[in-house]
């Protein structure tokens, strides 16, 4: 049985549209990593350079999540200590994120444009809370994200392939450790 070109078009174009609309629904972190990996593979760059690119993507995504929850905490936290911590963190994280963006641009790497799915879910859950429950969840999430960040920065300050990435990791690590310590102190203070 032969199909007319018009019938092929009717069957084929909806499939193309469905495939291309799925592209826009991707997690921003996945999308950034995919684009960087594709470029690096096309340019036959080493695996260690891919590791540097993934570090920058993950570091930027954690900074965006920390920035988002810190901005929410400035409005919703019951504890003045948390509002103060969140205000300081917002100022520092904005600077750190801008440094990451500048370096990524220099290295021709793509960073995520928004929060990943898991991060957006965590932010949504945090936003739904109020009072002491909010404060407790904020300090826990803040501490977890900073823990991940300081560990990654500590590793990359020594192991990054690119000297600029290594220098950025070393430079930002001390700020992250200070934030981490402040968050832990606050978390201990808020424990019942």
Fold and architecture overview:
The relative contact order is 0.13. The chain is built from 7 helices and no strands. The protein starts with a helix and ends with a helix. Helix 3 packs antiparallel against helix 6. It is 83% helix and 0% strand. The N terminus is likely disordered. It is mainly alpha-helical. The protein has a single domain, classed as Up-down Bundle (Ferritin).
Descriptive key words:
disordered N terminus; mainly alpha; 192 residues; 83% helix; globular
The CATH architecture name reads Up-down Bundle
Determine the number of helices (DSSP H or I, runs of at least 4 residues): 7
Low-confidence stretches: 1-24
CATH superfamily: Ferritin, core subunit, four-helix bundle
Count up the domains: 1
Gap from first CA to last CA: 76 Å
Secondary-structure-derived class? mainly alpha
**Shape call:** globular
- What is the CATH topology classification name? Ferritin
**The biggest beta sheet, please?**
none
Number of strands: 0
Helix content: over 70%
Question: What's the CATH class, please?
Answer: Mainly Alpha
Radius of gyration: 21 Å
Approximately what portion of the residues adopt beta-strand conformation?
under 5%
Mean pLDDT: 85
In sequence order, what are the helices and strands, one letter per element?
Answer: HHHHHHH
Q: Short summary of the structure?
A:
This protein is mainly α and 192 residues long.
SSE layout:
Elements: H1 5-24, H2 28-42, H3 47-76, H4 80-106, H5 117-127, H6 131-159, H7 163-190
């Amino acid at each position: 049985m032969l199909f007319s070109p018009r019938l092929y078009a009717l069957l084929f174009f909806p499939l193309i549209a469905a495939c291309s609309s799925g592209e826009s629904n991707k997690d921003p972190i996945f999308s950034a990593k995919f684009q960087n990996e594709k470029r690096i593979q096309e340019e036959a760059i080493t695996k260690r350079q891919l590791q540097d690119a993934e570090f920058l993507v993950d570091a930027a995504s954690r900074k965006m999540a920390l920035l988002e929850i810190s901005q929410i905490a400035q409005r919703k936290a019951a504890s003045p200590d948390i509002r103060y911590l969140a205000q300081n963190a917002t100022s520092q994280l904005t600077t750190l994120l801008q440094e990451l963006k500048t370096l990524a641009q220099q290295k021709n790497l793509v960073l995520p444009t928004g929060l990943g799915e898991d991060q957006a879910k965590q932010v949504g859950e945090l936003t739904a809370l109020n009072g002491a429950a909010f404060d407790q969840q904020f300090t826990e999430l803040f501490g977890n994200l900073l823990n991940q960040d300081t560990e990654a920065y500590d590793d990359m300050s020594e192991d990054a392939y690119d000297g600029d990435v290594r220098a950025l990791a070393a430079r930002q690590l001390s700020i992250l450790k200070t934030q981490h310590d402040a968050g832990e102190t606050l978390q201990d203070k808020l424990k019942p």
